[in-house]
Write a structure and sequence with these properties.
mainly alpha; single chain; 83 residues
Length: 83
């Protein structure tokens, strides 16, 4: 699917068209992932990155990729310690 977005000419002259397209794809993938509308893998694919590079992008944008509370983590560690 192709989506057309109108941008002011002076905005596009700041960067090449391919750079703008790449940044929009990344921003949209980050937004969808942060909203929990797509998985990390789907977001990475949408952004055009492998999952590890996309995880790094998430880190740079302070978007957690592991959604576990402190309590859940402590419970899991406790269970592992009893094994």
């Amino acid at each position: 699917m192709q989506i057309v977005i109108e941008l002011p000419n002076d905005f596009v002259t700041l960067q090449s068209l391919s750079e703008v397209q790449k940044e929009i794809r990344i921003a949209y993938a980050l937004w969808l992932y942060e909203q929990k509308r797509i998985t990390l893998m789907k977001a990475a694919d949408l952004a055009g990155f492998n999952i590890y590079d996309f995880m790094s992008i998430c880190k740079n944008h302070q978007i957690p990729v592991i959604d576990v509370s402190r309590e859940e983590l402590l419970e899991e560690l406790d269970r592992l310690g009893r094994s």
